[in-house]
Amino acid sequence: TVKQHVVRKFLGLISSHNIPVYLIDPLILGLVDKDIEQIRSSPDGPSPECKYFCAPRDFTTFALLDKTWKHEVGFFRTAEKMGFQWLKIMNKDPRLDGMDDLSGIEIPLHYIFKLASHAIHLVVFYERNGNYLWHGPLRLKQHMDRKFVPFRKLHFGRHPGAYEKPELLLVSIDDLKVQIPKNPSSFLKEMSYSRFLECRYREARAFFQLYPDDASLDAVDFRKKAKSLLHLAALTLNKLGVKFWLSSGTCLGWYRQCNVIPHSKDVDLGVFIRDYKADIIPAFQKAGLPLKHKFGKVEDSLELSFQGEDDVKLDIFFFYEEDDHIWNGGTQAKSGKKFKY
């Protein structure tokens, strides 16, 4: 089929230039995931007929790690000789857009390679501080051909995304050798909540002009401890498969000043009560965070506090869903008074 032919040509193109790409197409990975055991165990692929790359779709999506290739002119010349038309989408590099810099340097975020009635969407991933992979949004500049491909049908690019670095596996599917995430189902799950929100650096700068940042040793020390506690909490909850979010003062700090509020003295997380698991307490204790308080009960106003290093504690608030609102309960440690937010 045209689709398989275009994918074959594209894989030939990138291997001739030693560019390591991996498949992130959700439609194909969804099909591959159903047969993953069979695909892993048979080096030549499961069956001779075209089952995966012939599935109906307008695009096939691949990922490329920016640091693994040089932007060679020769690569695009070869693509043109092979009959591909291509489009490069650039945008601002957010890694420079920190608190001190708004240089607006642009980097390549997406490439589209079109041949006949099929197109390859190549998403460029960048490593960001914190050891995760980031891809940018796909925004067309004014002079670009909006009919080049049906852009609305793309699976990536509606907004920026962040992902763990995947372990890759070389497999043979439909007689084509291709790298895929070793665990396609967890990649697909990650995709559903991968939307990335950039910090509001400009607003944070304005905030600090009004209220200069606390740069005392105590503040620096607390922020360091709070961030390492947050890191440990994220690892622990992710291992359990419990979804969580930044809550209360921790969320406010990120939103208002792109940092931890130095006088807050704790780290706040929110979790829906439907995601509560009995293993949460033992998992945190095993991670070296003993339980300090437990308020409320699972059916009403549950709140857990764990003791981090020194005086920094981790508070996990559980949220309850009603028909038209969400609430969480709080208990004042000294008086035992209960509050509902």
Automatic annotation (TrEMBL):
Similarity annotation: Belongs to the LicD transferase family.
Protein name as catalogued: Ribitol-5-phosphate transferase
Record keywords: Membrane, Transmembrane, Transmembrane helix
Domain of life: Eukaryota
Gene: Fktn
Main location: membrane
Annotated InterPro entries: FKTN/MNN4/W02B3.4-1 (IPR009644), FKTN_N (IPR045587), LicD/FKTN/FKRP_NTP_transf (IPR007074)
Cellular component, GO annotation: Golgi membrane
Ribitol-5-phosphate transferase FKTN N-terminal domain residues: 3-227
One record GO biological process: glycoprotein metabolic process
Xref: Pfam families: FKTN_N, LicD
Chain coiled-coil ranges: none
Residue span, LicD/FKTN/FKRP nucleotidyltransferase domain: 239-278
Lineage: Eukaryota, Metazoa, Chordata, Craniata, Vertebrata
Localisation per UniProt entry: Membrane
Membrane topology: Single-pass membrane protein
